[in-house]
Amino acid sequence: MKKMSIIRYLLLMIVAVMLVLPGSIVKASGVDWNDAKIRVQGMGIAPARAMNPAQARMMARRAAVVDGYRQLAEAVQGVNVDAETTVENMMVTSDVIKTKVNAMIKGARVVAEGVTPDGGYQVTMEVSMFGVSNSVAQAVMPKPAAVEAFPAPVASVAPAVPSVSVSVNVNTSVTPASNLPANPSIPAVTVPATPVSPAPAPQAPTQPAVSNAGAIGGFTGLVVDCRGLGLKPVMSPVIKNAEGQAIYGYKNLDYDKVVSEGMAAYTTSPDKISRAGSNPLVVKAVSLDNHNGNPVISVADANRVLMENGKTAFLDNLKVVFLR
Questions:
Q1: Is the Cα dihedral 63, 65, 68, 73 positive or negative?
Q2: pLDDT for 159-201, tens place per residue?
Q3: Which residues of 219-254 are buried (b: 16+ CB within 10 A; e: fewer)?
Q4: CA torsion sign, 233 to 235 to 238 to 239?
């Protein structure tokens, strides 16, 4: 009996030594903007004082979860709420937001777990960027006092004729759709057969209403092609025209929708723009603003976006994708 106890003790000591060997912990964390998740892998090892293998496994799991919480806190704090403000900045200035963020992290989901080959324990934990409960947006997004109307198109500039595909070299000039080259490697975006009406006559700047008299109609969403510019993903982006006027921001939108769905999807693949629907309006960003967080499009493209939104309300419904 005594011999069995000694053997049992030696086995536990061997396991403990193996668990603390260098290289047994591999940590990975980060924000997945394509999936709108923050996902980390927490690692844990059992302390030498564990009395048996079952207790060692439980203690290693607990250590892994604690490590996951720590990594989530670091990742969440680095998320940009807008082009100039991180979650960490907001936590410093608001105890309410700090409390909400800490509670959100404690509510993180364990989506995978198990014993590692070297005897440690690994848990994969995640929180959602957007959602009605336990999301980063729910914890940090400020609610505007009132919803602001979308601006009117710039009266002195004719709206652009839409492009027909998301291609590597999207032309930002006003080019007839029939003259644009096709790119067989990227899915085409078909423009409805309805002919483009003549551009409306310039309106006096004092008229605030958004006219959709020259709208084509039928567009299901907006794709802003920002490839090659170094767009920085943020939770609350603003689309501006080349004159610096904001044409799309969270103040123009329903707050509950923004928290639940996010203002836009980010993707690096033209094949993953389904959020913008089957017939999106495609425009090319000409530059970036505010630390590369806000796309800037031409005034002509901005006018087209505003006119088409007046017809089918894709901006109101958050059907926006940023291709980066």
A1: negative
A2: 999 865 554 443 333 333 333 334 433 344 443 444 444 444 4
A3: bbbbbbbbbebebbbbbbbbbbbbeeebbbbbbbbe
A4: positive
Q: How many CB atoms lie within 10 A of CB 192?
A: 11
Can you list the alpha helix ranges (DSSP code H) found in the chain? 2-19, 53-77, 87-93, 95-106, 136-140, 255-261, 299-312
- Given a contact cutoff of 8 angstroms between Cβ atoms, the answer to whether 97 and 139 are in contact is yes
* CA atoms within a 13 Å half-sphere pointing along the CA-CB vector of 255: 12
C-alpha neighbours within 13 Å on the C-beta side of residue 10: 6
User: Using one digit for the tens of pLDDT, what is the confidence trace for 246-301?
Assistant: 999 999 999 999 999 999 999 999 999 999 999 999 999 999 999 999 999 999 99
Q: Which residues contact 99 (CB under 8 A, 6 or more apart)?
A: none
Here the tokens at position 99 are 């409390």
What are the strands of the beta sheet with 109-115, ordered from one edge?
28-32, 37-44, 121-128, 109-115
Angle at 38 between CA 35 and CA 41, to 5 degrees: 120
Phi and psi at 295, nearest 5°, equal -70, 145
Q: Give 89-124 as a DSSP string.
A: HHHHH-HHHHHHHHHHHHT-EEEEEEE-TTS-EEEE
pLDDT classification of 49: cutoffs 50, 70, 90: confident
Cα distances (angstroms) measured from residue 189 to each of 193, 194, 217: 12, 15, 14
What stretches of 143-257 adopt beta strand conformation (E)? 221-225, 239-241, 246-248
